[in-house]
């Protein structure tokens, strides 16, 4: 029987299988940041253990960093202490750190791919759920808890149970105004925020193969939002062309050897999945969420469901969600007023995202009632945006281009959405309080977010293209 892409990589990394069915899995690359690493480092120190393979760990500061005046001391005490602890721990244990001021600093799931660290066939972990982003390269990548961070630091291995496997096939050309964020929001809206619980998902089909690497990363990034352990896409020429020439990419003969291996990473004909889903790309329009989990998504031309459209067991949580969001059942989402627009996060802060937005807003001005934050995913993205003149386009449109970091994706740093305000966000989560206490978040693509920034309300971007 043929093997799936996941099985080819998983089997290659098993160090030992335990009687209970658990596997000791070897980890190729470990990314760390300032939030989930301090306790792990403390655990090592208390046990008198060194980091086993420090060269296989890459650290950066991203979650708690400010996105303005990064040259100044961090104002928030907890943020400052965590960033300082990361710096001290990395120096003590010999780990490469791309901290504030470093030309490679940025969101962990942005810098890994852009530096060529993330490669097909790898096992990759990080103390952050959106590690699944790296699966876009044909890697097994997933988030881990702080105790597991310590385990990988100490052994370069992890005890894991093999997940069930799901393949989601998206076939056909995309409609005008539809991008990868719409694809994944559509999928989650169809199978729910828990529809892939217990599974590792492979995305396939012509619509997926035709995506750029940046767009594929957006898809895999939000696998977690439907409960999956992770997501992945088979590597191909698009993948190889993206990696080639990057700082830490293989060179010369090593490159040829890697290509030979990477070219074998696909699901064989006859490979067995526990579940398969088929989606017609023609059914997908520009998407937006209206509630407080990523599964509560609709087309921008659609309406918030009525109570009659909601299953009885889901009505209490549905009504609670709408109460938090200040929305009524059955209303059209198009035309809903917006206060903030956030373009950034590990989902949509790459140079392609910024180019997409700049191309759309060039020559336009933001609505007076909207504040717009554009936060690049890394110093390299910021540098490219300036070199290409994208920062000027944003400046003329009234958009605020900030410095790299996780920013308003989560209420953990200084970039918080005020209570009661509506924010169209290109990030990945719309939970209660995610962007700040009582902030109201609507997830959307960079194009839909940009359209709202110009009009001041939820808009069908297709009317403006």
Report on this model:
The protein has 465 residues and is α/β, with parallel strands linked by helices. Helix content is 31%, strand content 17%. It is built from 15 helices and 19 strands. It has helices spanning 5-13, 38-47, 77-93, 108-114, 146-155, 180-191, 206-209, 213-221, 237-243, 252-262, 315-325, 351-361, 379-387, 390-397, 446-455, and strands spanning 14-17, 23-26, 29-32, 57-60, 96-98, 123-126, 140-143, 157-160, 164-171, 199-204, 230-232, 275-280, 287-289, 297-299, 340-343, 371-374, 400-401, 422-425, 440-443. Helix 3 (77-93) links the parallel strand 4 and strand 5. The radius of gyration is 21 Å and the shape is globular. The mean pLDDT is 97.
Taken from the alpha-carbon principal axes, the silhouette is globular
Radius of gyration: 21 Å
Poorly predicted regions: none
pLDDT averaged over residues: 97
Total of DSSP H or I helical runs spanning 4+ residues: 15
State the separation between the terminal residues, measured CA to CA.
48 Å
Strand order of the largest sheet: 5-4-3-6-7
> How many discrete structural domains?
3
The overall strand count is: 19
Q: Major β-sheet, in short?
A: 5 strands, parallel
CATH architecture annotation of the largest domain: 2-Layer Sandwich
Write the layout of secondary structure elements.
Blueprint: H1 5-13, E1 14-17, E2 23-26, E3 29-32, H2 38-47, E4 57-60, H3 77-93, E5 96-98, H4 108-114, E6 123-126, E7 140-143, H5 146-155, E8 157-160, E9 164-171, H6 180-191, E10 199-204, H7 206-209, H8 213-221, E11 230-232, H9 237-243, H10 252-262, E12 275-280, E13 287-289, E14 297-299, H11 315-325, E15 340-343, H12 351-361, E16 371-374, H13 379-387, H14 390-397, E17 400-401, E18 422-425, E19 440-443, H15 446-455
């Amino acid at each position: 029987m043929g093997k799936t892409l996941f099985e080819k990589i998983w089997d290659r990394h098993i160090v030992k299988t335990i009687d209970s069915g658990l596997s000791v899995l070897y980890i190729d690359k470990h990314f760390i940041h300032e939030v989930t690493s301090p306790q792990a480092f403390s655990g090592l120190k208390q046990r008198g253990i060194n980091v086993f393979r420090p060269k296989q760990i890459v650290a950066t500061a991203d979650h708690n960093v400010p996105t303005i005046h990064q040259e100044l001391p961090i104002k928030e005490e907890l943020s400052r202490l965590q960033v300082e602890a990361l710096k001290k721990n990395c120096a003590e244990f010999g780990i490469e750190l791309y901290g504030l001021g470093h030309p490679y600093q940025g969101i962990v799931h942005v810098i890994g791919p852009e530096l060529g660290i993330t490669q097909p066939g790898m096992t990759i972990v990080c103390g952050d759920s959106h590690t699944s982003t790296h699966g876009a390269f044909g890697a097994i990548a997933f988030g881990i808890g702080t105790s597991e961070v310590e385990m990988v630091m100490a052994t370069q291995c992890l005890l894991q149970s093999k997940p069930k496997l799901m393949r989601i096939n998206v076939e056909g050309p995309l409609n005008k105004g539809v991008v990868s964020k719409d694809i994944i929001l559509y999928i989650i809206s169809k199978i729910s925020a828990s529809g892939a619980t217990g599974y590792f998902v492979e995305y396939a089909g012509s619509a997926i193969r035709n995506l750029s690497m940046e767009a594929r990363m957006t898809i895999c990034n939000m696998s977690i939002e439907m409960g999956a352990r992770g997501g992945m896409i088979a590597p191909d020429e698009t993948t190889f062309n993206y990696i080639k020439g990057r700082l830490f990419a293989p060179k010369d003969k090593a490159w040829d050897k890697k290509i030979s291996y990477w070219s074998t990473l696909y699901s064989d004909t006859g490979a067995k999945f526990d579940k398969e889903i088929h989606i017609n790309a023609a059914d997908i329009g520009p998407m937006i969420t209206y509630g407080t989990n990523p599964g509560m998504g609709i087309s921008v031309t659609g309406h918030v469901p009525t109570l009659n459209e909601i299953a009885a067991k889901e009505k209490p949580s549905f009504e609670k969600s709408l109460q938090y969001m200040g929305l009524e059942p059955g209303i059209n989402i198009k035309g809903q007023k917006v206060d903030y627009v956030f373009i950034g996060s590990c989902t949509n802060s790459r140079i392609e995202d910024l180019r997409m937005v700049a191309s759309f807003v060039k020559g336009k001005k933001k609505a007076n009632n909207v504040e717009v934050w554009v936060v690049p995913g890394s110093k390299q993205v910021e540098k490219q945006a300036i070199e290409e003149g994208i920062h000027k386009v944003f400046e003329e449109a009234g958009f605020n281009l900030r410095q790299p970091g996780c920013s308003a994706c989560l209420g953990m740093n200084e970039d918080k959405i005020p209570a009661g305000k509506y924010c169209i966000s290109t990030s990945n989560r719309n939970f209660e309080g995610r962007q700040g206490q009582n902030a109201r978040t609507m997830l959307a693509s960079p194009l839909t977010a940009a359209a709202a920034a110009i009009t001041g309300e939820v808009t069908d971007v297709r009317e403006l293209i």
